[in-house]
Input
Amino acid sequence: MKRVKIRVFRYNPADGADARYDEFEVEAERWTTVLDALLYIKAHKDHSIALRYSCRMASCGSCGMVINGIPRLACYTKVYELGSDVITCRPLTNFPIIRDLATDFTAFFAKHKSMRPYIINDAVDRIDGREFLQKPEEVEKYLQFSYCIKCGLCYAACPTVATDKRFPGPQALAQMYRYLIDSRDMATDERLKVVDDRHGVWRCHFAGSCSMVCPKGVDPALGIQLLRAYLLGMSRDSKVVAELYRREK
Amino acid sequence: MKENREGVKGWLNPTRYGANRFAYWLQRLTGLGLLIYFIAHVIETSNIVYGKSAWEKMLAVTQTNEGHIVLMVVIGMCVFHAANGVRLYIAEHGKGIGRPGRPEYPYKPTSLGLGMKACIWVSVALAALAMMYGAYVLFGEA
Ligand code: HEM
Ligand code: SF4
Ligand code: FES
Output
């Protein structure tokens, strides 16, 4: 067990006061996460701290914040692994602040939605008890990108998002590739049109920070480069749209 | 609601996100450095329209220690920017960054794998070697 100092960013647009850090001492065990520590502070020291969380197990993507300079999930970051007696928690960068550590995901989700993150296929209306047939290799082309929990850590780390409001960001672009390369999806041309833009996929400079911070192994930078390669006609992943198939009983 | 966008500050710190972010920072810095050098170079060489003596006066400036150091930095910037530029060109065409698969904990993004890291450090090493050779030639003749 060790005592650590947690510095929490405090800012409430409603009270008009400047942003500040509040400091709290807490005891941490080897298994204590930063979220555990913050919830302890909230329960016993200052219940007015605003933060967002739900699952406490790196699944819901709610608890992203900048912890000691790097965007991380508070529930997925142990106090011990930070190797420091001072832990500074700030709201995610590139997201507007609602209050304290709670940030506004409206623009981020809108960008995700603009990628039409669902399978587009006319045959869906004619499915009639049949299902699409996909080989394991076809699943592997998109599987890891579908692990995204929309936590926004990549969006907070990206140096392009930092300066370009219109850039969709690593999360949305990786999702575009996820649906583009899915053999059940037919909307290839419409999809490419959305990202083939000066402020779209070409704005990525492959700084790789998104993949560095992603807690789910999505590797959005890989998805973005493969999306770009597809647009450049360099992709070996030429697409054959999956067929409908009736499972024998 | 406070915007909280990181802004240009986000470009300036190369230490936070590993080798790729460092390469991003250096590519930008050397790109801008080369652009400034290129403009200065055009202005500098345009001295020739003022005749032989102006040209030779200008050449003398490049023969000073400061002139040599500036040229060494330009050599280093050129070599890193070109080598890393070729790496980016290949990676941004989807090559040399691995294939998607079934991620296993602890996750290691393939796009930031050993191949990319090696290329970045080789670019830095080539730049350093070129600068040393440049120093040998420039200061050797003085
Ligand atoms: C062998 C020659 C060169 C190669 C292979 C090369 C390659 C590249 C590449 C691939 C990029 C884009 C990097 C990215 O996606 O972020 C870039 C950016 C840039 N280059 Fe070059 N380049 C070369 C020479 C030059 C020269 C001679 C200059 C200056 C006159 C220059 C100035 C720039 C600038 C200002 C940028 C923008 C930097 C940024 O946006 O971060 N480059 N270069
Ligand atoms: S790609 Fe990774 S870091 Fe980005 S939102 Fe999805 S899970 Fe989070
Ligand atoms: S609380 Fe759900 S991801 Fe951290």
The domain at 106-248 of chain A is CATH 1.10.1060.10 (Fumarate Reductase Iron-sulfur Protein; Chain B, domain 2). Helices of chain A lie at 34-44, 106-114, 136-140, 153-157, 169-180, 188-195, 209-213, 220-231.
